[in-house]
Write a structure and sequence with these properties.
The protein is mainly α and 331 residues long. Helices cover 76% and strands 2% of the residues.
């Protein structure tokens, strides 16, 4: 396997892992005021992701670093052309992170409510805009001969990209509901299960439309297989949630997000950022890549350090695997 192919796959895996893991974090944040009837329940919801949310963000940081080193032209064109979208995502992540830390620093109800709204906004904005970003990468943007983005910010808010944003927001919210069914107890868990069934059913509509559009406009035989499997996994998640199998329902939505993400990256290949104008201006894995020496050094570094990172994160999830019970939250 060529190193450019290896690193394209590696970046796709990193983004896919981020969407699966951070996806349920976003979902919990979106559902905070919906499922949390009082402060104790909202604290219980936050505690389900408290030990892991910041670790989940490491995946996107690593993906961005890998893109910068392996495909510098892709990184430059993407981060300059999509600057405002990525800046809004960053602001959302910062606001959410600050809210997690500051929510418990005050005793007043208004203080906590204010930070709860920040958690919700800091979850909705990135969950929606990541779909917009990825959809535009697959669809392509206008690039000149220097691989610079020549379109406007508003051109990124096209119907296909907006449908992609709605899809990620809906899927992540359903993913979060299934996670809460898995991680909480009693009445809160049952309400999360019931809400997850409703949200999952509603999420199926934009998800099916977006995947079908992707297949018709950009797909191939491999993407068709991945799309079909993603749809089957989504339907399986609904059935499993209906029967009360929270762990399997959560696994099914994780599989749905993973397969859908894989389908998008397969639809993109061998380009990394297509040009909607002159196809000769498209960024591909060849013309966007770093030197072979750089890719070789990165490969050895990844082979050494990636297993350590995976083991550490797996250990974190194992340590904090128990359910969160509302009655154990101090009044």
């Amino acid at each position: 396997m060529e190193l450019t192919t290896f690193w394209f796959i590696a970046i796709a895996v990193l983004f896919t892992g981020y969407f699966i893991l951070e996806g349920f974090d976003f979902g919990v944040g979106v559902l905070l005021p919906v499922l949390g009837r009082d402060d104790r329940e909202r604290r219980a919801l936050i505690n389900t992701i408290g030990p892991v949310w910041d670790g989940n963000e490491v995946w996107v940081i690593t993906a961005g670093g890998a893109m910068f080193a392996a495909f510098p032209h892709w990184y430059a064109s993407l981060f300059s052309g999509f600057y405002l979208l990525l800046f809004l995502i960053l602001i959302g992540l910062i606001v959410r992170g600050v809210a997690f830390e500051y929510r418990g620093k005050g005793d007043g109800e208004r203080w906590r409510r204010r930070w709860d709204r920040c958690i919700v906004a800091g979850s909705i904005v990135p969950a929606f805009l990541w779909g917009v970003v990825v959809a535009n990468i697959v669809r392509g943007v206008p690039l000149d001969a220097n691989f610079d983005h020549t379109g406007s910010f508003w051109s990124l808010l096209n119907p296909y990209a907006l449908l992609g944003g709605l899809t990620t927001l809906a899927l992540f919210t359903a993913h979060g509901a299934y996670f809460l069914h898995l991680k909480t107890t009693g009445d809160l868990a049952e309400r999360a299960r019931a809400l997850g069934l409703k949200i999952g059913t509603a999420a199926a509509v934009p998800a099916l439309a977006f995947l079908l559009w992707t297949q018709l406009a950009h797909g191939n035989g491999l993407t068709l297989a991945l799309v079909v499997l993603a749809v089957l996994a989504l339907l399986a998640g609904l059935a499993l949630d209906y029967t009360g199998r929270g762990g399997w329902a959560f696994a099914a939505t994780a599989l749905t997000i993973g397969l859908a993400s894989a389908a998008l990256f397969c639809a993109l290949w061998p380009d990394v950022l297509p040009s909607t104008g002159d196809p000769a201006n498209s960024l591909t894995r060849e013309n966007a890549a770093a030197t072979d020496k750089t890719l070789g050094i990165m490969t050895w570094a990844a082979l050494i350090f990636l297993p350590v990172v995976l083991l550490y994160q797996g250990w974190t999830y194992w340590v904090f695997r128990k359910r969160v019970a509302v009655e154990r939250i101090p009044a």
